[in-house]
């Protein structure tokens, strides 16, 4: 059994992760106008923190939730820490729990918002979950998957092309260029292959509304993580969903990885006071104010300052 990630990381305190989460929920909220989401159910890995569950209830109004927890101690802690009465915690691995959810009377006739946020790489078990969800999730469901994109998880540089072919089969072209899986590029390649796999499964299953790719977010706090996903629209929802995803202001496909700087409360407050502004904040401006960041950190904060989390430690 993998060591529980909740013993290593408080998922609510990572700035890039927090920004990614807000971007995703903003996208889902925009899709509400085009999908039958009034009775949506949320399914995910709440761990012991349930950060995404709280957001799903407060932002989207979801009132039926399922969390899956495989670790025995984590399961008991999750049951203790559930934030709302309607959250049910299932003990087991997702691949084994999913079949029971397709028959669950409380959610089987509802559209689902599924966010399986794995702390490990895309592997055979993740692929099995994706296959199951795209095949069997109810119409108008939204499927999201987050995986670890650390290059070392996918073998040495010489091994990666074979690893990708083992995972994605014919989706990987025979002439896949080496640069596609080199360090720094592998995350983009994985994101594209994961979305292509979801689309191919929906096509094979002849889902009436197909699969509409909607989410492609790469972020990094300590290790690069990849979030992809899309919509399984009912036939009547397809046109509205496609229109929403085709808008220039669709927020869920940022062109660069999100790498948010770790800032003190004072630094964040000083930067925030400069925004919004038409021109970019410069290092010279910050140096004149008494501190410094590199250009990438400044750009990341200026892009995502509205989503940047505010944390405080209270000492009594």
Main β-sheet, in a few words? 7 strands, mixed
CATH topology of the largest domain: Rossmann fold
**What's the domain count?**
2
* Low-pLDDT residue spans: 6-12, 312-316
What letter string, H or E per element, gives the SSE order? Answer: HEHEHEHEHEHHEEHHHH
How is this structure best described in words?
The protein is α/β, with parallel strands linked by helices and 316 residues long. It contains 11 helices and 7 strands. Strands 3-2-1-4-5-7-6 form a 7-stranded mixed sheet, with helices on both faces. Helix 1 runs parallel beside helix 2 and helix 4 packs parallel to helix 5. The longest helix is centred in the middle third of the chain and has 19 residues. The two termini are 39 Å apart.
Question: What's the gist of this structure?
Answer:
The chain is 39% helix and 16% strand.
What features would you highlight for this structure?
2 domains, 316 residues, globular, disordered C terminus, alpha/beta, 11 helices, seven-stranded mixed β-sheet
SSE blueprint and pairings:
Elements: H1 15-31, E1 41-44, H2 51-60, E2 65-69, H3 72-81, E3 87-91, H4 94-101, E4 112-121, H5 124-136, E5 141-148, H6 157-168, H7 186-204, E6 212-220, E7 224-232, H8 238-245, H9 265-272, H10 283-289, H11 295-304
Parallel strand pairs: 1-2, 1-4, 2-3, 4-5
Antiparallel strand pairs: 5-7, 6-7
Helix pairs in contact: 1-2, 4-5
């Amino acid at each position: 059994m993998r060591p529980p990630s909740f013993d290593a990381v408080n998922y609510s305190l990572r700035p890039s992760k927090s920004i990614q989460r807000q971007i995703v929920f903003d996208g889902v909220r925009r899709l509400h106008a085009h999908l039958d989401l009034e009775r949506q159910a949320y399914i995910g890995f709440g761990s012991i923190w349930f950060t995404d569950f709280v957001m799903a209830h407060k932002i989207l109004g979801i009132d039926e939730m399922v969390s899956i927890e495989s670790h025995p101690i984590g399961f008991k802690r999750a049951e203790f820490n559930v934030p709302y009465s309607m959250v049910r915690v299932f003990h087991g691995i997702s691949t084994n729990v999913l079949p029971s959810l397709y028959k669950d009377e409380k959610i089987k006739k509802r559209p689902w918002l599924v966010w399986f946020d794995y702390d490990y790489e895309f592997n055979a078990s993740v692929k099995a979950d994706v296959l199951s969800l795209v095949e069997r999730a109810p119409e108008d469901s939204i499927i999201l998957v987050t995986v670890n994109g650390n290059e070392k998880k996918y073998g040495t540089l010489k091994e990666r092309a074979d690893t990708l072919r083992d995972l994605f089969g014919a989706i990987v072209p025979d002439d896949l260029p080496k640069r596609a899986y080199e360090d720094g590029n592998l995350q983009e390649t994985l994101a594209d292959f994961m979305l292509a796999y979801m689309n191919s499964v929906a096509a094979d299953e002849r889902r009436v509304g197909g699969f509409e790719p909607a989410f492609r977010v790469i972020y990094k706090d300590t290790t690069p993580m990849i979030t992809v996903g899309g919509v399984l629209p009912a036939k009547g929802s397809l046109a509205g969903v496609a229109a929403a995803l085709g808008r220039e202001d669709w927020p869920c496909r940022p062109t660069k990885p999100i790498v948010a700087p770790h800032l003190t409360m004072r630094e964040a407050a000083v930067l925030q006071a400069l925004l919004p502004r038409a021109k970019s904040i410069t290092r010279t401006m910050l140096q004149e104010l008494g501190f410094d960041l590199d250009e990438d950190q400044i750009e990341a904060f200026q892009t995502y300052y509205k989503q940047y989390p505010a944390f405080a430690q209270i000492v009594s």
